[in-house]
Predict the structure.
Amino acid sequence: MPYRLLAATELAEFLRALAHPRRIQILEELRNDEQDVASLKEATGLTQSSVSQHLMVLRAHRVVSERREGRRVFYRLRTVELADWLVEGMDFLPPMNQRDGELRKAIRKAISKWSD
């Protein structure tokens, strides 16, 4: 396989692991500190099972790593800059018209919260 196709394929697989709104939310929640499933459940409003399934995908793609402390498992970003990159990626969203004001506000709030 030509090197460019091999590199593009690997990048596409990585982006596919990130291509879910809840996974992006989980990554942003892990921006500043490691957290366990219970904390991520509370922060995201997801069920424990759903958080665990998303973390499984992120672990499989080496986006997050885990640390065990007794029965608790804590997750953290392998590369903290990934959270910054995702927030900066919002600059590439297509321009919105006036009726998309609610979405525009949501994006500004997310950027503000996640950029702290």
